[in-house]
Amino acid sequence: MNIKKIVLFVLLIGGGMIMISSTAFSMIGRKFEPLDLRNTGEKGYFITAEFPYYRLNPNEWQDRLRKIKAAGIDYITFYVPWNLHEPSEGVFDFTGVTRKQTNLKPLLRILKEMNMYAIVKPGPFICAEVSHGGIPDWVTKNDKIIMKTALGGNLGFRQDGKPLPIYLSSNYLKFVSNWYETLAKETIIENQYPNGPIVAIQIENEIPYSTSELADPFSWGYDGETVKMYTQWLTSVYKNIANYNNLHNTSFRSFDCIFPPVKWDCTTLKQWLSYQDWVMFKSYYVAKVIEIYSKILLDIGVNLPFYHNYLMLDDESPTEFSKINKVIYGGPNYWLPASPLYDEHSFFEGLKRLYMANASLCSKSYIPEMNWGWGNASEYSFLAKYLLHATSGFNVYPIVDSDDAGMLDGRKYSNNPEPYPGTAPIDETGVEREAYYSLKKLTTYLNKVGTRMVTANNAAKVCIVYSPLYNYPSAYAKWGKIGRSDLTNIFGEMIDMNESLYYMIKTFYSENVSFRLVNLDSVKQEELDKYQLAFVLSYSYMKNEGMEKLSKYVENGGIMVLGPDIPYMDEFFKPSNTLSSILTNIHSAGEVKISKPFPITIKSNDECFKVSKRLNYFSAPTENTLASYQGKPFFVSQKYGKGKVYLIGFNYFLLSALNTRVFDKIAKENEIESKEVLLDTNGIYVNVEKSKDETFVFITNRSKEIDRIAFTVRDEKGILRKIEVSTKKGSVSIIELKEGEVMSAFVEGENNAFIICDMHKIASDSKELLYFRSISN
């Protein structure tokens, strides 16, 4: 099929090149709404299950689907492997000619008969631990289609080394278009809901190519077509070569003379700008891939919601959440390096990833890949439940073990040993494991309370504001293996947004502060203005649009804590006083390099804290100064409009003790009630989500000793309720309250499970309490 001219790009079939006319994006197709995907008007918590039909004997499909439905799950997801359905160019199989699994009609018929629904995931790349990630080998026989590294080498799939195609290569796009069109006509269009069971489409998978290491800026993008796109993108951003040369301190004759950086050779901000351009372009490129693939399906006649399953990155280029979300819905992936049940770092990394995804969407996320089948029942029950408070749904990946992937071109089709993965809730013979019954209990609870739980939200008055711009330097340090000292020499300190967020989230979460994460790129002014207190990590540069939002936020009455720098340049390092102009009495006065930690005392506080490495100080009147070092103010404040700014001259995000003290001081000084829970027990975390009628309380126990906990929670009416609950070590319990009454509960105990709320006790004679009070929805 020919790809038509669409809003933001043109594919010239003759020249075969995508031409960039704008760097803006807009939503493609119907919006993916996990709370009500079929648009029935009945919202609920969205639970799906991965069903790898291509790994199972078709004779087993119906049995496994019955067991999935019996587990309380009506929606399945499945990849459609391109290399199985088009084994040679132009030869398609949707009828079971080349292998028994390729006939999808029986699968879709069974789903319809059982009142079940499907989300189809046609790639073109699927990973799925199969040969070539689902891409046909014949596609990459042409070397011009293969991705190139900075050294000019071919890029291979991390699982089997097979070459990976350039996402937007004109030749590859023709193959992809033909694959999408044939699949749509053979399978999708006639089975679109409400005529059939297919309710949504996942576009691509874990871009780029299910490999976090491809966040290394030097790892791909050096083929001729991508470089040409890069120069066009530069033209769109900088408008003319004179402007580019002025900002970059270069002397190019035209944009066509510019080549992306191939190695690290950077010592100044002007030199850094070209490195920033490259990772910024990569984020744009990935969103463009999603846009073009979505548009192909839309033009064919696929009228379904689209979404994407993110790679295991945390809003890092090239997987920049807010850019992808401008095109289609994106959800986080929960392949973590270790189980959050045992590993504290993975526990808080998992929260950070989810909160960042939610910040980009401005809503709770559906998790397209909750890796339930990669461990024991306790580990993955914990994984799902500890994230429940901030999710709208999850996909059990996978729900069945399988051992019939067979062979392709003389080698095993599965890149992983079979049965795959080996620990799924339903084993390869169809027997339900412990994880199945654990999952069934959870779905029983969620299916009954989901309509109420999904309307409950964290009524936070406090937010942490972050800018994805500050993740660009760490792309080179973390993934490009450039020494942090090389970046510190450019910026004065290491700029790493994710590291700073990790510690800030850990502090606030551990202190039971009710807060939300805010993405400065995607948040609307009216949404930002809802928060009374905003903590903002800021360096010497920031996007002008972000500075304008923050300035307006303070003017409208917000309390902003800024640091370690006052931004005085925009994202292109051009002078900007957008934010500094609101600090009429305060100005940057220099910095001090600290070789040893030193104690400081904050005014009106006897506690001392230790700060090290780099300290910015300011010129400020005495009445605006809250703390000084050797007579140099580094913690100052000033009113502006209806609000107030606090400025701290070092990265306080990284210091948990100081975070707590600074937070308590500022919250108290401005009469901000920030905690919905009164609790002081290490290893126990309580989250509170409220609607106008109910309060949901989530109790996470990561302690090694505590088996019961007492705390006080502020309910939906603002009334303090005393709660005591049994809590099994390594468990998450959920309690639903309404006007002080326990309406539902899913509680685990070391012995008999129980809840006491305002002296009223509900108990079980077993270690689990699954309770529902008779109520109307």
Describe the structure.
The chain has 777 residues and is an alpha/beta fold. The chain has three domains: 9-142 and 158-213 and 285-453, Glycosidases (TIM Barrel, Alpha-Beta Barrel); 462-669, Rossmann fold (3-Layer(aba) Sandwich); 678-772, no CATH class. Helices cover 27% and strands 23% of the residues. The chain contains 17 helices and 32 strands. The chain has a nine-stranded parallel β-sheet with strand order 8-7-6-5-4-3-11-10-9. The longest helix has 32 residues, at 269-300.
Task: Please supply descriptive tags for the structure shown above.
27% helix; disordered N terminus; seven-stranded mixed sheet; alpha/beta; 17 helices; 777 residues; 3 domains; 23% strand; single chain; globular; Rossmann fold; nine-stranded parallel sheet; TIM Barrel
Summarize the structure.
27% of the residues lie in helices and 23% in strands. It has 777 residues and is an alpha/beta fold. α14 (497-510) packs across α17.
Which class of secondary structure composition applies to the elements? alpha/beta
Please report the total strand number as a whole number: 32
CATH class of the largest domain: Alpha Beta
CA radius of gyration? 27 Å
> Considering the protein shown, what is the CATH homologous superfamily of the largest domain?
Glycosidases
Q: What name is given to the CATH topology of the largest domain?
A: TIM Barrel
Strand order in the sheet with the most strands: 8-7-6-5-4-3-11-10-9
